[in-house]
Fold this protein.
Amino acid sequence: MGSAVTGWGSALPSLRVDNNALSQVVDTSHEWIAKRTGIHSRHIAVDEDATTLGTQACAQALEVAELGAGQIDLLICTTSTADALLPSQAALIRARLGASNAVCFDLNAACAGCVYALSTAHSLLQTMPNMKRALVVGAECMSRIVDWTDRATCVLFGDGAGAVVLERSDNDRGVLACALRNEDDVDDVLRCDQIYSCDPPFSADGVIPCTQEQIAANAEAEGVGLEQALANAHCTGKAPLVRMKGRDVFKFATRVIPQMLQEACHQAGVSVEELDLVIPHQANERIISNAAKKLGLPLERFHRIIQETGNTSSASVLMALAHAYQQGCIQPGQLVGLVGFGAGLTAGAVVLRA
Ligand code: UT7
């Protein structure tokens, strides 16, 4: 039994921001960004959010698979930029989509989330008798968490969503093997702290640092309203922004991409040379060409959309996969390798037969 890809879709916010526009925001240039990353533009969600983008990508994938939303048994959303902490992003998309029979949950493996989610969906389709059809969606609004004053990171990321339908199949089509790996990020090379806007009103020694009476007295002394004084006392205003040591991430990526693809191919009983197409995480054109060189594969075999989208984190492999199907770059029976890496540190690859 396998899990076949029967539908695919993607969504981009309507606003396209090119490198020249970005150079009006930070001290950068089209030449630098294009040469060092291969990125020419990215889309930024102004009117959209992860729910609208994710739902749109899922709806497209369902249409290709000729399925109704009610026929989906499992919906996994991979994201680091969910619209809410509670409920899950998957639950928000499920409701908007009308996938009322789906079990749903989020999975965060940073930019490698796509391969982790596909591996998880594949495993559940193989082991849960009542699960036959799954939607795997990556939906990201990275523009919410990048530091728009840091030129070394803000030029890299974009927003978007990608989705696939996976269906349990009785033939040799679909996912053949998955390889996943984690390494400790001891140097914090890629990190974004959580958004908690409030501190609990207690300290470790049990003393209550700000009682209602004190806050009310402060409000009166400062001449501000009680509501404002309460907010001032409890809201931390911490800004959760992406911090990255780019060169370290670069080294990690160029090491693990070939390793993970080789491991997944080995498990699938095929050689890397047999892959008709590789869909890599769209983080940097130079990372992709470096990996191609290490694997001895022509760069043309690596499907790339990075020029138009930038790095859309866990959505990027799903978006590129959808794009490859839409462009007719994947024919039935062909072997496709998907490979991702990201914060954590996470890495993984999936080999599938289209
Ligand atoms: O999903 C995973 C997420 N992350 C990644 O995959 C990122 C992996 N890393 C990379 O892609 C690259 O390391 C970057 C694109 C982030 C940076 O490229 P680099 O070739 O490693 O540049 P660098 O950090 O070594 O910086 C070289 C120079 C520095 O100036 P000086 O010190 O040589 O004068 C930077 O200040 O480039 C400067 N620089 C910029 N200049 C213009 C850094 N960012 C920019 C910029 N525009 N946007």
